[in-house]
Write a structure and sequence with these properties.
Layout (H helix, E strand, L loop, with lengths): L2 H11 L2 H7 L5 H6 L3 E6 L5 E6 L6 E6 L6 E2 L7 E6 L5 E6 L8 E6 L6 E2 L7 E6 L5 E6 L8 E6 L4 E4 L7 E6 L5 E6 L7 E6 L5 E4 L9 E5 L5 E7 L5 E7 L7 E2 L6 E8 L2 E7 L4 E6 L7 E4 L4 E7 L5 E8 L2 E9 L12 E2 L16 E7 L5 E7 L12 E5 L13 H9 L2 E6 L8 H4 L9 H15 L8 E6 L1 H12 L6 E5 L5 H7 L1 H11 L7 H6 L13 E6 L7 H14 L3 E6 L9 H19 L3
Length: 624
């Protein structure tokens, strides 16, 4: 046997854990270099993919040939580009961009082959969701001229840039969708995004037809018009509380009729002449499904083995672009032929962008798994559990409970570089889908209504007990972190359960719910009424469920992050929190990024906050 063959033979006998232990942990710098791809859209001719990525350090617009190749940068605004949309002739794209993360967006367009970026709006209001009509003559979008984030439907004539307002609803509208003949725009009318109607708006006159959801007291969203324009695919909660596909016959009496699978949430329908494509969230993983007719039984084209988002098809419906990711691989653009000459659509799947940089190898990262445990009242809670490959901080390892925002959101089998950074340091990461999370039916999503910081906080404590009881973590070395509602839960956890969590990192959380309600009422007032109530009518509840009155009970050190331009949880809220912590002489650090809003998107700030947080948890939880 040659030395080379012998070496390979010995290598195969060496346990993978030993090899992993010999490897230095990936650093914050390496993991932050991994690109964040946030959106993708396929050109009408199917030859080019437009996508949003932070290749340069900020989220900019790029294109790449569908056959593969080097990406071309179309914008250099150094801001947050989003909501990209192709013109029907494929010659240019529209998009939005804000200023320092303040969510006060303007509309832009740029030639698809590169050139000068043209500003379509330059106003003090926020314009969002630009959608070009199929005839290429008009641009539908939502804007908030009356009150911040109270969005209404507008239309711009692209040849003159003249803008007409089409709706004056008492609550906001969202999700504009053009009919194939460019005469009608479908939108959802809802104040809290949980109850609402569908509006069919005449693009010339503003006249509207109101369509109620199939199940009373829920909401209905436009999904895709049929190619002949005679029907509209919608998404609405069914009787079990899961979002299901429905078909609305236009011009006919009656409600939308449910079609396709109903056991999990369905999203992003795309209707072509061959049938309806859609995504299905199956307990934190996403499958791609297809119906060749509304009456047909659905076909699973891609199984639920990670997360798929952002379906986009060419004009002929023959090629599809989508974003795919899993716990160890970041989101990238993939292309698939919907009717390949040979083989199945799944066999034609191919990757066209490559975001994993910094020398990071996916098989060396920690794979996650969805784990189910029982909470205090025997409610089943699902959590993403990421166990460190190497016990660099001892065994069992310390843990960090990562709390998603929302609360109407969900932890999925998706890539999170910060979670991987913690795992590389030697932490286990527990990311529960506490009651109030989406993805498990409307009753579960509504289970923390009027109960913020109650049952949902107990779900987090139950996670610590579950994994600690199994010996998967050291229950005496547990930290907690989260952003927005996750930041609020971090503060509540440290204040209300001070003996459970030994350190906390709060990203733009809300310390006082009355203050948060008053500062964001124009944007979230109706939503607050559904989720938590009204601070006048429910004053006692708002005080009881605010962290602020209990900060004197905090024992653990706290790290606080805030974006100066945050319009979702304004900086004044974190300023108040830090002032009280200082007065109470509680150990804390406060970091403010002047060029960020709600959720950090600039690589330099993501790197800084990730590094600071990891070092903070190692300092306070690393030693046994």
């Amino acid at each position: 046997m040659s030395r080379r063959r012998f070496a390979v033979f010995v290598l195969l006998l060496v346990p993978s854990a030993v090899l992993a232990a010999d490897r230095r942990p990936y650093t914050a710098e390496q993991l932050t270099l991994i690109r964040n791809t946030a959106d993708c859209r396929l050109s009408p001719d199917g030859k080019t993919v437009a996508f949003v990525s932070d290749i340069t350090g900020a989220l900019e617009l790029w294109t790449v040939p569908a056959k593969g190749g080097w990406p071309v940068q179309l914008t250099s605004l150094n801001e947050h580009v989003g909501s990209i949309h192709w013109a029907p002739d494929g010659k240019w794209l529209v998009f939005t961009s804000d200023y320092g993360g303040n969510e006060r967006r303007d509309l832009y367009r740029v030639p698809a082959d590169g050139g000068e970026v043209e500003k379509l709006t330059d106003t003090k209001v926020s314009e969002s969701e630009p959608r070009i009509s199929p005839d290429g003559k008009r641009l539908a979008f939502t804007a908030d001229p009356d009150a911040d984030f109270d969005f209404q439907l507008h239309v711009m004539e692209l040849d003159t840039k003249k803008v007409r307002r089409l709706t004056r609803e008492a609550v906001k509208v969202q999700g504009p969708l053009w009919s194939p003949d460019s005469r009608t725009i479908a939108v959802t009318r809802s104040g809290d995004e949980q109850k609402g109607d569908l509006l069919l708006i005449d693009a010339d006159t503003g006249a509207k037809v109101v369509v109620a959801p199939p199940v009373k007291g829920t909401i209905i969203f436009p999904g895709a018009f049929a190619p002949d324009g005679k029907s509209l695919a919608v998404v609405a909660p069914n009787a079990a509380g899961f979002d299901q596909l429905g078909v609305l016959k236009l011009g006919a009496a009656g409600a939308a009729k449910f079609i396709g699978p109903g056991g999990w949430d369905v999203l992003e329908p795309r209707w072509t002449k061959d049938g309806i494509w859609f995504l299905r969230n199956e307990g934190g993983a996403t499958s791609l499904g297809f119906l060749d007719s509304p009456e047909a039984k659905s076909i699973a084209v891609l199984p639920a083995r990670g997360v798929i988002t952002t379906l986009s098809l060419d004009a002929a419906g023959r090629r599809m672009a989508l974003l795919r990711e899993d716990v160890t691989r970041p989101a990238d653009v993939w292309l698939m032929d919907t009717a390949p000459e040979k083989g199945t659509p799944a066999e034609s799947l191919r990757q066209v962008t490559f975001s994993l940089l910094g020398g990071v190898k996916p098989y060396e990262l920690s794979p996650g798994e969805m784990v189910t445990y029982e909470s205090f009242d025997r409610t089943k809670i699902h959590a993403l559990f990421i166990k460190p490959k190497v016990a660099r901080l001892g065994s069992p390892p310390p843990a960090v409970v990562s709390v998603h925002g929302g609360p109407n959101a969900q932890e999925m089998l998706a890539f999170d570089p910060f979670a991987q950074l913690l795992a590389e340091q030697g932490f286990a990461v527990i990311a529960p889908n506490y009651r109030g999370s989406t993805g498990y039916g409307r009753p579960f999503e509504d289970a923390n209504n009027k109960d913020w910081g109650g049952g949902d906080l107990k779900d987090l404590v139950a996670a610590v007990k579950h994994f600690g009881g199994k010996g998967d973590i050291d229950p005496k070395r547990v930290g907690i972190t989260g952003g927005s509602y996750g930041g609020y839960m971090t503060l509540m956890a440290l204040a209300k359960t001070p003996d459970v969590f030994a350190a906390g990192a709060d990203f733009y959380g809300m310390p006082d719910l009355v203050m948060d309600y008053l500062l964001t009422k124009s944007r979230f007032g109706d939503w607050y009424e559904t989720e938590m109530g009204n601070p006048k009518r429910d004053a006692a509840l708002f005080r009881e469920r605010s962290p602020l009155p209990y900060l004197d009970d905090v024992k653990a050190p706290l790290l606080v992050f805030q974006g100066a331009n945050d319009s979702n949880v304004p900086k004044a809220e974190s300023d108040l929190l830090v002032a009280v912590l200082k007065e109470l002489k509680k150990p804390h650090e406060y970091v403010v990024y002047d060029d960020e809003g709600h959720g950090f998107t600039r690589r330099k700030n993501v790197l800084d906050s990730s590094r600071r947080t990891a070092e903070f948890f190692v300092k306070h939880l690393g030693k046994k």
